[in-house]
Amino acid sequence: MANFKGHALPGSFFLLFGLWWSVKYPLRQCWRRGQPRGRSRLPQFFNRIDLVEGALKIFFAFVGIMAEQFVPDGPHGHLYNQEAKSWVKLMNWQHSTMYLFYGISGIADVLSMTSLPIPPGLDRLALSLALFVEGFLFYFHVHNRPPLDVHVHSLLLVAVFGGSISTLLEVFLRDNPVLELLRSSLAILQGTWFYQIGFVLFPLNGVQWDLTLHDNMMFVTMCFCWHYAVTLLIIGLNYSLVWFIIRRCSGRQINDMEIGLRKQPPSDRSSQKALLQDSEEE
Amino acid sequence: MANFKGHALPGSFFLLFGLWWSVKYPLRQCWRRGQPRGRSRLPQFFNRIDLVEGALKIFFAFVGIMAEQFVPDGPHGHLYNQEAKSWVKLMNWQHSTMYLFYGISGIADVLSMTSLPIPPGLDRLALSLALFVEGFLFYFHVHNRPPLDVHVHSLLLVAVFGGSISTLLEVFLRDNPVLELLRSSLAILQGTWFYQIGFVLFPLNGVQWDLTLHDNMMFVTMCFCWHYAVTLLIIGLNYSLVWFIIRRCSGRQINDMEIGLRKQPPSDRSSQKALLQDSEEE
Amino acid sequence: MANFKGHALPGSFFLLFGLWWSVKYPLRQCWRRGQPRGRSRLPQFFNRIDLVEGALKIFFAFVGIMAEQFVPDGPHGHLYNQEAKSWVKLMNWQHSTMYLFYGISGIADVLSMTSLPIPPGLDRLALSLALFVEGFLFYFHVHNRPPLDVHVHSLLLVAVFGGSISTLLEVFLRDNPVLELLRSSLAILQGTWFYQIGFVLFPLNGVQWDLTLHDNMMFVTMCFCWHYAVTLLIIGLNYSLVWFIIRRCSGRQINDMEIGLRKQPPSDRSSQKALLQDSEEE
Amino acid sequence: MANFKGHALPGSFFLLFGLWWSVKYPLRQCWRRGQPRGRSRLPQFFNRIDLVEGALKIFFAFVGIMAEQFVPDGPHGHLYNQEAKSWVKLMNWQHSTMYLFYGISGIADVLSMTSLPIPPGLDRLALSLALFVEGFLFYFHVHNRPPLDVHVHSLLLVAVFGGSISTLLEVFLRDNPVLELLRSSLAILQGTWFYQIGFVLFPLNGVQWDLTLHDNMMFVTMCFCWHYAVTLLIIGLNYSLVWFIIRRCSGRQINDMEIGLRKQPPSDRSSQKALLQDSEEE
């Protein structure tokens, strides 16, 4: 699917999940902060959401695999053409493989939410693995292409492997608010960058980019940073919005707790933060 | 031993150990989970198993070294030919060196099970080292070979170094269930991939692969991911099977404990998992 | 701004911040050590200082962006020249982007000092990110330049990425005195090295360096190490100075505490250190 | 000093320190294990030893710098020859720089042993830095040399950077017995490998090696692994020896404690080990 749509489809998936995470995690963090200290429980509501998220991942992965296989110029499930002695549409098969691992990550998510004895952190490992496989396949994906084409895909790899490492850290540092925001931001970045790749390689206005010009590569590198700056802005806005709404709804409760905290023997600011973090990490 | 058997032999070793680990670790985890909280002890049984495992490693390493040295076209212990002024069968010597470090790992395993004051984590460090040495030697192993040959061995390195890093983490995060499953899966992957290398370079049906065709490389990259997907399936099946059998055997006990847990002041699901993990990690 | 001033400007910023940190962090560490055990509080004074630091970062970033855009030969806000079909002054745009992320880091600093519920560690993540973006853009910045030019900028990357990784660790190991000193030293190193790049590429005495001579590259590599040795000396002097002054001011108090410590059941020296560290880390 | 002695000198330093560490750390570990639980103190003896070690490092670094500068064909403190417009003996200057950072590491060791408020872990950071600088300078040291020359120095870098990373971990995981043994082993490896480089590049029997033959490179890679296998053997022997002697001297005491441990409610073997580790790490 080497066209604009072929990049917009995965881009939309990542954008959707990134935006959703940038709302979900602040919501969870604010909820916990609003609770009195001690092992506060998250409402059942949050578990159901995670379950739906996992199910959606499986569904999207399934849609992605089907789309890659059964588009008109797809391989339709054929891998090797005995007559022509050649592989059939390997590009589509590679994309299917990427979706497959996101499906596995979805299955791990769903299983983690059941009462089965799944080791904690397995869902994050599966997601980290899905991102790694995506980056791994992309890495060997772009040989023999024009320099700018290679470069925009290499930049994508920064977001993909960055997300993979950040998610791997979450296996060991679960519920770390900074890592959760980092993962959300890298998912949004990946989403918007897929769109950008589409715009660069298949321009909507029809004016082709010069795929060998060094200046274009320099611009694209810088543009990647701008995407991330905008992503950080979105994350910040969503965080503020969630915090403002939560504060409105459960208003007085938070104020009380904050006053309570201020009444404690005053201590170093960072230790106060550490306290808050404790109550978040439970 | 540049033939199919030369790849099937180490492949079988890794496959065997990987499959065994994928049964042993779930067994240990389920056993601990089934115990009442507090520092439950593993039955002596598990220590004996680890001892046997270490002894088997030493034995296999010994067999491997002997095989590499004394096959008909092996170096028979000769390293340098003074007359021809050349090294004798360096490939076999390199393989012997790899086996040697697995032997050292086996010795570390056995020593860790005795009552000697071995620093905890040394067995994992020795295994990590053995994997590193394997990867290190393979890395300088494949110069001047056809592209596909280099590529299938490079993919092997992903499994080898991945296993080495994951095992190194276990030095510091001992008994982490996720890392144990990761190590098991990477061992199985290495095993099946050794077989795949054999099939690609020495096809059983006699039809040689084109070792320079780019499409073959793309397929092989993807195939590596499929191997890992199947590996994950095997790990999952073994985990379920072990859990199901343990549940059958010690049935009521687990149920009781789970009800016990559910009666506790209900808390966030992830904290409940953390509890379980605590009891696992002791 | 490919001239001496263009390298002296960022160099001065980094030097200023590095020197300031090399005073601030020893001050905080000594203050805490001087307090009786238990969660001692840092005076409000330190929070105000951090606030001013964040505000200064935003101001400097703003100055930097404006300078890059509106110097006589700058892009004046124009990105693409429709007539010439070419990008306008991409170098200046890249530098503006770097400053932008330092501005974002400043905003994160300021927000962390307010009473808003910012996740702890976000300020360090933002700084780490700003350093990463700087290194990332520099990495693609130096294609098609003479070898020595490439080499001095590559050496800069060691300081930049080193600082980025060290600051990233601080997200998880906040208030670690060793990491704080490491960050200070890498900032000073970056500052002095920017000056050195200026001296090498635009020598003040007008005698151009031979940008292709291998010996020059060897000298420059070694010179980089000397810069760091001097940096360590500065850090050490500042640390001693701060410690000496604090000791003078709050003299008796520290002595008392140290005697108190010595009266404790004597234990291993490293454990005593660990105690001190605890009281630092709170 | 491109001759055999020039490689034997640093090799001897590293070998000496590696062997010494492989005795010192087991000694400390066994001593602690022999003490009753709780924060046992190391005898003043160990601090004095560390002080002497630091002083020796400073002395050796000083000797190294002097030797590099004032050997007959050294630079004698001259850096730039104004007349010839060229740098003077950069190789010797680079080696002096390496020694300088080991001197700084020695100073950090000595300061850490005084009663000054040095942040704990600074001595390990300084050592890690010295190793990093050594590797960093070697990395840019070997351009334009024959392949085998480059290769033996690259293998050295594995030991150097491995040691640097392992020592960096010790900043955060101080007194970890596994990391201490790893550092000792990598120091011995570096020492013996320096000798090996000397033997390969300046053979004592006068028969030059073919510096371009691929087989030689394969042998050397394998030989590096053998060096490490021998290193592990030495480490193991020293550990056993120390343990055996300590057991002899303070015999009964250890036995008592072990019986004490066995009388505790029996728990998982690994948890028992963790206990022991706790008492080691204090």
UniProtKB/TrEMBL annotation, chains A, B, C, D:
Keyword check for Membrane: yes
InterPro entries given for it?
DUF716 (IPR006904), TMEM45 (IPR042127)
What domain of life does the UniProt record list for this protein's source? Eukaryota
UniProt key word Cell membrane: no
Q: How the protein sits in the membrane?
A: Multi-pass membrane protein
Question: Which region is the signal sequence?
Answer: none
GO CC entries: membrane
List the residue ranges of the region (Disordered): 263-282
Q: Write down the Pfam families for this protein, in alphabetical order.
A: DUF716
Q: Please classify the protein's predominant subcellular localization into one broad category.
A: membrane
Residue ranges of the TM segments: 6-27, 48-67, 99-118, 125-142, 154-173, 185-206, 226-246
Q: Where in the cell is it found?
A: Membrane
- Could you list this entry's UniProt keywords, alphabetically sorted: Membrane, Transmembrane, Transmembrane helix
| Alphabetized PANTHER family for the sequence | EPIDIDYMAL MEMBRANE PROTEIN E9-RELATED (PTHR16007), TRANSMEMBRANE PROTEIN 45B (PTHR16007:SF59)
- Family assignment from sequence similarity: Belongs to the TMEM45 family.
Name of protein: Transmembrane protein 45B
Instruction: Give the species this sequence originates from.
Output: Albula goreensis
